[in-house]
Structure formats: structure tokens, C-alpha cells
């Protein structure tokens, strides 16, 4: 082999190493970006899932309160009117236990839901019994 051939082969080998190094950098960057995107997507989808769940539960409770307010307005008798005067419902918070008791923020979601359900069931029973 002459000197020119050896020089060409060395340059070719050097170019291959540079190409491999560049490719490795590109591959590492793609993996890093993909990992970051995956984390971001997972976090956002989890937040959205729990937001959707809370929105549904809130809507159901608000709908029940609205239904109660509407039926109460339409069917007010003297007894019901007196009862509502004795036991007013704060229109801003309705029966929302989180709105009335800030300590509930320190409890688990299951405990808060259980307490809210108990209050809703009690109030619904009173309404069904004609207060």
C-alpha cells in the first residue's frame, strides 16, 4: 500500500468515527426529548383525568342543588318557607362541605366525598319527607 492509500483510509476511518459520534448525539437528544415529552403528556393527562372527575361530581351536586332550589321555589308552602328561614342555605356555597369547612382540604378525597354524600343524602331525605 502506498502512502496515499493509507491516508485515504485513515481519513475515511476518521469520517466514520465522526459520523458515528454525531449519530450517537442525535440519538441521545431524541431519547431525551421523547422522555421529556412522555413525562409532560403523562402529567397533563393525569391532571385532566382528575379535573374531569371533579367537574362531573361538582356538576351533579350543583344540578341537585339547582333542582332543589327550583322545586322549592315552585312549591313553597308556609311550613317549607318557615323551615328555610330557620335553616338557610348559603346560596354561594349551597351544601358544599369544602366551601364551609376548610379543614377538609387536609383529608383524603374519599373522606370528603363520603361527608358530602352524607350531607346530600340527609338533605334529599328531608326534601322527600316534605321537610
UniProtKB/TrEMBL annotation:
Name this protein carries in UniProt: Uncharacterized protein
Lineage of source species: Eukaryota, Metazoa, Ecdysozoa, Arthropoda, Hexapoda
